[in-house]
Amino acid sequence: MLKISRPIIVEGKYDRRRVLEVVDGTVISTDGFGIFKRSDVAALIKKLADKYGIIVLTDSDGGGLVIRNYIKNIVGGERVVNVYIPQIEGKERRKKTASKEGFLGVEGMDREVIEKALAPYADGAPAARELNLTKTDLYELGLSGGANSASRREKLAKALDLPRNLSANALIEAINLTATEEEFKLALAQTEE
Question: pTM, whole model, 2 decimals?
Answer without folding.
Answer: 0.77
